[in-house]
Every structure is written in C-alpha cells, then in structure tokens.
Design goal:
Length: about 240
C-alpha cells in the first residue's frame, strides 16, 4: 500500500515528515504565455517557460503527535511545537529547502517559505493549525568566467624555462546528497526503517529526494522526472 506523506527538508539538510497529511494539496503547474494580434489571423499565443511553482498548504499538527490518532506519519514526533519551530527557523534563515509529497501527486521541488502562519485550531488547545506558502527556487547566481591571457612572445636572448610540476592533487570524492543521480540495485521499502518491502530495482537510473541519516534504509529514491519509488539501503545506491 502506498504511503502518502508530506516531507520537508530545511537548508541544514534535516528531513522530516509532517504528522498529519493535509486534506488537500494541488500541483499548480502554470505556463507563461503572451498574446499577440496577427494581421488577418487575429489573436495568437506565444508560449514561454514554465512559471515558478507556488503552493499554499493548510494543515493541522496535534499537540502530542506520537499519541494522537490523527497522525498519519510513519514516525511522528512527541512534541507538536517542534514542527512549528522547524518551519519557523527555516523561514527566518532565508534559504531554500525542499518539499516532497509522496504518492501519485509526485511533488518534488526546491522551495523557499514566503509565508507561515500558525495558531490553535477552532479553540481546540490540543491541535495547532498552520498555513504555509511556498514558492519554487531556481538558482540564478552568476558564473565566474576565466579569460586566458595571451602567451608572451619569446626574444632571441630569452632563456627557455620549464616549470616544475608538482604532484597532482587528488580529486575530492563526490558525496551522495539530495538531487544526486544514482544507479540503484536493491529492494525498495515504504519507509527508512525497512517497513513495507516492495519491488527490487536493478541498474535503475534514479534521483535522491530524501536522506534519513543513521537509518537502515537512509536514501529515498525517485524517478528522474519526479515520481517517488521508495527507501533503499546505502549499499544499494551508486553515484551515476
């Protein structure tokens, strides 16, 4: 059975599942388009690039998620205020994180928190109610371009010198992180603890979407285009 969950990863690479799956989440993809009038044809559209994804999610958090029958998360936390503090700290840090919604919806995007509101739900002191607005983040930092200088001309009296070559420095080992492309050979599981064993991947081209450090199955993999697959052992993944 597919587990539907709402996961956040903050800029410190901490990943958690919200305790209660919101009752409604939509995937509002929108295309940029401009309209023009063409002589003897009329109005036409010119399609541009996809607009930034924007999500507004409303949900609830029990005061004590681990003891509440409302919780849908695999491993809910003891204190509901801890979720509020994580989201509030992320927003104040002013850096992008990630949202992943597992299941058929297949949302997986880098986002920033534009707005976060929370309080008690309908006078119930045992439940927090929150509204969070997220907007997709795209890197736009300038790239450094190195301009090669022209070699100096040699004169007849100039002595030819040879620079001594030192030992080449070893290249740093690439680490697996969120967004890494990997080859998977191993069995998929429903959660990072090994629950709900499922299909076995063989030489599958996948992408890392979640990391749960210290767990038996620490990597959550998905299709390259975003469809969730499941959790696997560390030994089952290899950088592509």
């Amino acid at each position: 059975m597919t587990h539907y969950g709402l996961y956040f990863t903050n800029p410190s690479n901490e990943t958690w599942e919200m305790p209660v799956m919101p009752g409604e989440i939509t995937n509002p993809w929108e295309q940029d388009a401009e309209q023009f009038n063409v002589v003897k044809l009329g109005q036409v559209n010119r399609l541009g690039e996809r607009k930034l994804l924007e999500l507004t999610i409303e949900g609830i958090i029990p005061l004590h998620p681990s003891k509440s029958n409302l919780s849908t998360a695999t491993k809910p936390w003891i204190n509901g205020k801890s979720y509020i503090n994580k989201l509030d700290g992320w927003m104040k840090g002013k850096k992008p994180g990630r949202i992943v919604v597992t299941g058929d919806l297949g949302i997986n995007a880098r986002v920033v928190i534009e707005k976060f509101e929370w309080g008690m739900a309908d006078g119930d002191s045992g439940i927090f109610k929150y509204t969070i607005t997220l907007r997709e983040w795209r890197d736009y930092s300038a790239k450094k371009i190195v301009v090669k200088q022209k070699k100096a001309t040699k004169t007849s009296k100039a002595k030819k010198t040879t620079a001594k070559k030192g030992k080449p420095k070893p290249k740093p080992v690439k680490k697996i992180g969120i967004g890494s492309r990997v080859i998977v050979n191993g069995q998929l599981h429903r959660d990072s603890y090994g629950g709900g064993p499922g299909l076995t991947e063989r030489n599958a081209d996948r992408k890392i979407t979640l990391i749960a450090k210290g767990r038996a199955y620490p990597y959550h993999v998905a299709l390259v285009n975003g469809g969730a697959r499941g959790w696997v052992k560390a030994s089952a993944v290899k950088l592509k």
